[in-house]
Amino acid sequence: MNPAEPSRPALANLYDGLLREVTGDHGGEGTILAHRVYRREDAPAGIAFVDLVVLPPRSSIGVHRHADDQETYVILSGRGRMTLDGEEFAVHAGDVVPNRPHGAHGLVNDSDDDLKLLVLEVGPLGGER
User: What pTM was estimated for this model as a whole?
Assistant: First the structure.
């Protein structure tokens, strides 16, 4: 490698490694599957984490809050019901749901198929709201 050329960042793959079981995530129902692709200590600047998450039928991520981070849910496949700051609404493949810093959010798979999503968290944001 030429010293004048910038080094390429390390690559991560969503499917490398096994999805781990998480029971009662944030007080949710059932057992979901999750794979943390990036962690704050390994990720590019500003990224807290990137997760691939699978919610089997009738499982959920309980309603919860983060501190000064912004978390975004990207629904890859399936459908469910999202709670965002007290409002509940349907989500399906292709939906991108930003969860504001300090906001309350959760997700239920109310279908008969797996719901797959990417969870992207950035922050801390330094008090921005």
Answer: 0.82
